[in-house]
Each structure stands twice: as C-alpha cells, then as structure tokens.
Amino acid sequence: MLRYATPFRYTSRETKAMYVAQKYAPLLTAGVLDVGCWESRLRPLLPPTARYVGVDMLPGADVVLNLDRDDLPFADRSFDTVLCTDVLEHLDRCHRVFDELCRVASGHVIVALPNPAMNFLMALLEGSGGRLKHYGLPAEAPADRHRWFFGHEDAERFLTERGAKNGFAPEQIDAESVWSPPRLEVDGRNVFDHPNLRRGTLWAVLARRDL
Fold it and tell me: Sign of dihedral through CA atoms 47, 50, 56, 60?
C-alpha cells in the first residue's frame, strides 16, 4: 500500500496539477515551492494554509529565472515541500538544480522524471522509425528538448544516491503507469520484462533525514 496515492490519472500538463494536489495533499499544507511551475496550476488547488511560490523561466511565475544559469534565490530550508515535476531532464545543470531543491527544502522534495527508454521502445513498436519526441537532430534548434536519456533504474539511482549526499532518503518511489510490451524471447528470457522498459513516469518523495 502506497503512503501517497490517488485514483486520479492525468492526461495533460493541465490535469497533472490535480494529480499532484490529490496524491501529495498531506505534504502541501504549508510552504510549497513549485520549481518549473509553468502556469502555476497547482496554486488554486492548495489549502488556504499553504504558502505557494512558483518558479519558471516563463513570464508570470512568482520568480522568473533560468535554471540552467541561476540558483534558487531562497534561504536554506525555507520551504516545507519542494516540487520539481518533469523538469530536470530538460536541464544541462540537472545535478546542480537537484542539489538546490534539497537545499531549500526543510521536509520533502517531490520529483517526477519520465522514462525515455520506455518511451523510445513504445515509439519504435508503434512505427516511429526510431524517432522520439524531445530528442533527435532537427534542422533548426528546438525551443525545448531533453538533455538526458535514461531508464527507470537510472532515475531511481540518481534520486537515491544524489539525495543521500544532500541529507535526503526516499520515502516513496512509484511509477505513474506500467506498460506491458509484447514478448521478445532471447535464450528463453523475455528481454522486454524489465523496469526500464515497463515503468512509466517515476514519482519520488524524498524526506530530509539530517534534521
């Protein structure tokens, strides 16, 4: 039984805020920092007790900055919970930014990371010809792309080991969905039966241990 769960399933950036608000409601009652907040859709879904601050490079955020250039302009442990969902994979400085998330969190850090390895296999089996959204080499420089290619195990290892260096440990790690690819037998083993190729977006709650 997961400590943090919701039957709600999101299908877009717009509905993801509702997923977050419902699933992690116990952690979103006081100081909340939303790093990569987009349009701050989470703000109206929080209780009146919450102090919400949204960070993004888009105009309209409470704090506008470029995470690939700037550190978070907040004091150490100044927010109870720090959120960063589907953001780190877009950053060259993902290690530094993750450290910053931990630095300004007094209690918990919530991170969501996609599973590009699974997405690539899905796209390949659907006839993409090896093309994958957010990657590739277009003729013109794209406005947005992923900087890192990884699977579920790499994402979990990154969050666990990097979190430990910052005084955090996993409280919950789960996958938003689990995909069942067709079987491919090699030496009597289904090579597709692996977390890197079956688990969808990874959601992690890291709790501060160096209190």
Answer: positive
Q: What is the chain's length?
A: 211
Please give the biggest Cα pair distance in the chain. Answer: 58
Is residue 78 helix, strand or coil? Answer: coil
| Contact status, residue 106 vs residue 133, Cβ threshold 8 Å | no
User: How far does CA 181 lie from the centroid of its chain?
Assistant: 23
pLDDT tens, position by position, 89-120 = 999 999 999 999 999 999 999 999 999 999 99
Collapsing DSSP to helix, strand or coil, 119 comes out as: helix
Phi–psi pair at 187, nearest 5 degrees: 55, 40
Cα–Cα distance for residue pair 177/40, rounded to 1 Å: 24
- Crossing angle between the packed helical segments 152-165 and 94-104, to the nearest 10 degrees: 50
Backbone angles phi, psi at 35, to 5 degrees: -90, 115
pTM of the model: 0.94
In the chain, count H helices and then E strands.
Answer: 5, 9
* Bridge partners for 207 per DSSP: 108, 169
Alpha helices by DSSP H, listed for the chain, are 13-23, 94-104, 116-125, 152-165, 195-198
**Where is 14: in which H helix or E strand?**
helix 13-23
Structural contact between residues 118 and 193, judged by C-beta atoms closer than 8 angstroms: no
pLDDT at 142 over 80: yes
Residue 82: both structure tokens together: 């720090």
